[in-house]
Amino acid sequence: MHRVCISSTGLYVPSEVISNAELVIAFNQFADLENARHAEAIAVGTQRAIPYSSVEFIQKASGIEQRYVVEKSGVLDPSRMLPRLKPRADSEISLMAEVAVSAAQQALAQAGKTAADVDGVICAAANMQRAYPAMAIEIQTALGIQGFGFDMNVACSSATFAIQIAVNAVQTGSARAILVVNPEITSPHLAWKDRDCHFIFGDVCTAILIERLDNAQAGAFEVLGTQLLTSFSNNIRNNAGFMSRCEDRDPNDRDQLFYQEGRKVFKEVCPLAAEHITQHLAKHALTPANVRRFWLHQANMAMNQLISRKLLGRDATPDDAPLILNEFANTASAGSIIAFHRHHDDIQAGEVGVICSFGAGYSIGSVLLRRT
Ligand code: CO8
User: Fold this and answer.
1) How far, in Å, CA of 359 to CA of 196, rounded?
2) Which atom of ligand 1 is nearest to the CA of 360?
3) Mean pLDDT to the nearest integer, 129-149
4) Contact at 8 Å (CB) between 217 and 111?
5) Cis peptide leading into residue 133 (ω within 30°)
6) What's the CA-to-centroid distance between 259 and ligand 1, angstroms?
7) How do residues 83-117 score in pLDDT, each as one tens digit?
């Protein structure tokens, strides 16, 4: 069995940013338009007026200050409220593949590796652009990697679950190195017309190079172990799928996009995640106090504070558990990887850290790392 490490990461950030203020202005204009259009029904009480969103609520409830998106003009157009994406011909690279190639090339360069050193690509994300051919195969080919590629989706835990698969493959020798890419283009799946969730998500792509420790540069993060958990819940859902049109559904039905019971998710997932991490550490004769840094999933600031408090028995500092969601919002499975990407340089040789994701499914994945 080979020892395995995360040798590098890469991050693609879209060039367009939407601040909370811009988002709320567009939403409130949309609410005015809709309420004027349905004024009669609202007056007689057969329809409810759409209430305004507010910057103060968003900031306080989530900690999110802005989000990057692949296209903002369509999102901020109150008569549209979704990104405007140009259709691409089959002969052109698709959007998810393009952003994944960018993040992957960064990861390869950072590790001093080329496509010839890699045997496989796993494209792991909460939403895939199409059913087939697999996004990963297009990414693999665009990067010039000989070997294999496949897609997988475990919502916000897609990245950590893919890390476990990649680690197993490298450990047993079926691959020398695997690139895990997480093109989280969430904006097309977000209900921008729903004030309960219109502020939650942003677009981004992360890449992670997993390889044999004996092939990696000094300073790589050895994977000491991975642990996955799933438990079915309807509290975070998206019913869009290939059967929707056979059900004679309106493609604009609310359940064809992301929807959730945010409060229930908060209450149920926080204890599960804290318990999961504690159990995982115990298997390695460690406790949360032995951990130098937690790179947690980035859905909600208060959620991360609560999980850290359960783990450490005190409030976590930004050094214990850095937050990136103020800048990026929730980027589904990429969130904990962005936190790692941005905040690992100061970890010393021998120190231990934990990447942990949690989200729809429910799904929880933790990756225990030690710097070499
Ligand atoms: N502006 C002003 N008021 C608002 C707004 C708004 N934008 N939104 C809601 N309110 C109101 C509500 O209507 C409610 O009013 P009232 O008390 O009169 O009913 C009040 O504010 C309080 O609302 P909530 O109870 O909903 O507020 P919370 O404090 O619970 O905060 C959160 C809402 C931020 C959503 C919070 O519950 C949360 O973060 N929960 C955790 C959610 C979570 O982590 N979900 C994970 C989802 S991600 C995932 O798993 C991956 C999915 C795949 C990606 C899909 C990509 C699109």
Assistant:
1) 17
2) 50
3) 97
4) yes
5) yes
6) 10
7) 999 999 999 999 999 999 999 999 999 999 999 99
Helix (H) or strand (E) holding 180: strand 177-184
Looking at residue 299, what is its pLDDT?
Answer: 96
Q: What residue's CA is closest to ligand 1, atom 2?
A: 53
- Please give the helix or strand (H or E) that residue 209 lies within, else none: strand 204-212
pLDDT-derived band at 251 (thresholds 50, 70, 90) equals confident
State the pLDDT at residue 102. 98
Position 8 pLDDT exceeds 90: yes
Query: Atom 8, ligand 1: which residue's CA is nearest?
Result: 196
What CATH number is given to the structural domain containing 237? 3.40.47.10
Q: What per-residue confidence (pLDDT) applies to 41?
A: 97
Residue 68 within a domain: no
Q: Is 110 contained in some domain?
A: no
Nearest CA residue ID for atom 12, ligand 1: 196
Residue 202 lies in a domain: no
Q: Which domain holds residue 333?
A: 222-371
The finding on whether 31 has its CB within 6 A of some atom of ligand 1 is no
Q: How far apart are CA 164 and CA 160, in angstroms?
A: 6
pTM over 0.70: yes
Q: How far is the CA of 276 from the centre of ligand 1 (A)?
A: 24
> Span 273-289, mean pLDDT?
97
On whether residue 29 sits in a domain, the answer given is no
